[in-house]
Design brief:
β2 and β3 form a beta hairpin. The chain contains two helices and 14 strands; from the N terminus they run βββαβββαββββββββ. The chain has a single domain, classed as Alpha-ketoglutarate-dependent dioxygenase AlkB-like (Jelly Rolls, Sandwich), CATH 2.60.120.590. The chain is mainly beta. The longest helix is centred in the N-terminal third of the chain and has 14 residues. It binds succinic acid and fe (ii) ion.
Length: 226
């Protein structure tokens, strides 16, 4: 459907020893892929781990340096969490809302991030930050680059859960045309290498209900911040 001309969806084994699960992938850039349903085999472990992270670091609507309150609510886990306020964007070790370190990255989150990066050709990814975004219907994320990390040699691994969203994948200039990539529960997108700094965003999420997550979309983005 969103297949680029000249690319063929390929079927591959998600985990070498688990042939019951397979998934299709789409290439959306030289080093960017969408892996459909990639997170589904881990979903029963992901959701309780997410709950536990959110108990310790609840979602909050942060303010941008420009003074705009984000429609997407955020949390983080891992060694570093991403924050924004009037003074700017930054990665911190402490959650400014609780005064505590960000919750540890659950083992299953790490497993998923590593497997997806590996499938995209980025072996041995060890993310130290996982941003957790919650979109309620109407929430969106404007086109931006992920560039608050210290280096760009590692990819961004992005996991979609809950209701669908239209992901916009642009180029290296904000004005470049964007590909529209519909993302569903369990889909994982990886972009790295020469694609690492491509602009991307999410269109306003449409009203819908997901059987497990209700009227929301949760997105994880794994990065190597430091
Ligand atoms: C992000 O760019 O941080 C989020 C992307 C998404 O929600 O799919
Ligand atoms: Fe981003």
């Amino acid at each position: 459907m969103m297949q680029r001309k000249g690319t063929t969806p390929t079927t591959f084994d998600l985990f070498a020893d688990d042939t019951r699960q397979s998934s299709t992938s789409e290439q959306i850039g030289p080093r960017s892929f969408v892996f459909r349903g990639f997170a589904l085999p881990l979903i029963d472990r992901l959701l309780p781990s997410l709950e536990s992270v959110l108990t310790r670091a609840p979602f909050r609507n942060m303010v941008t340096p420009g003074g705009h309150t984000m429609s997407v609510a955020l949390s983080s886990c891992g060694q570093f969490g991403w924050t924004t306020d009037r003074s700017g964007y930054q990665y911190t070790r402490i959650d400014p809302q609780t005064g505590q370190p960000w919750p540890e990255m659950p083992e299953v989150f790490m497993e998923l991030a590593r497997a997806a990066a590996d499938a995209a050709g980025f072996a041995d990814f060890v993310p130290d930050a996982c941003l957790i975004n919650r979109y309620i219907p109407g929430a969106k994320m404007s086109l931006h680059q992920d560039k608050d990390e210290r280096g760009y040699e590692w990819p961004v691994v992005s996991v979609s859960l809950g209701i669908p969203a239209m992901f916009l994948f642009g180029g290296h200039a904000r004005s470049d045309t964007t590909q529209r990539v519909p993302l569903f529960h369990g889909d994982v997108v990886v972009w790295g290498g020469e694609d690492r700094l491509r602009f991307h965003g999410v269109m306003p999420v449409k009203q819908a209900e997901h059987p497990q997550l209700g009227e929301q979309r949760i997105n994880f983005t794994f990065r190597k911040a430091r």
